[in-house]
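Structure ticket #2291
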Amino acid sequence: MTMKKIALFCCMFLITGTVFAQTKKLPIWKTITIDSSNTSSKVLAALKEKGVVFPFGWAGPIEMLIDSTPYSKTVQKIDLVLVTNYELGLPDSGARFEQVLAAGEKLGLIPCPAEVGPLLRLQYMNQPLGEYLTIAMEPIHLKWKFEDYVYYVANSDCNAEHVGKNVLTASDMHGNVFYSKKIKQVAKSTFVFRRLKT
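Resolution: structure written out below.
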């Protein structure tokens, strides 16, 4: 083995080791179960039965997002990790959404399947008041709105109509919850990534 190949191998080993170590420092926050029988209509019915709130004026787009979400055909358990802008190494002033996903990848995290959005909402009905979580996922393009959407799970403390209620949305209520992948920026937020078992 030449010195150049040895140096390259050592470099790759150090990078891999660093990513592994960083991932180990991020504890699993929650594990959710994905049912193989989920469909958009079944998920939507469950959300309504649980009393999940869709913000005024956004019920249509949210229902379209749920309908456009791919659902797994196999039973899975998904380990989730919470990370902030700071932990991702991003400025508080904001970053583009693709930068969020790239920063998570550097920590050994991967985007969540899109269905994690509504399923997390269903399996996290005791969410603390004032907590706002953005699902790190590949945005789903809705042709009707000409935009890319991601899910946002919250227990609102700043909208009188929604205080103390479990919200599922992708709206721009606070300027940091609905993103165009190309244009809008993500303000300071907490993101939900998937962590693969190590």
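Closing remark: The two ends are 30 Å apart (CA to CA).
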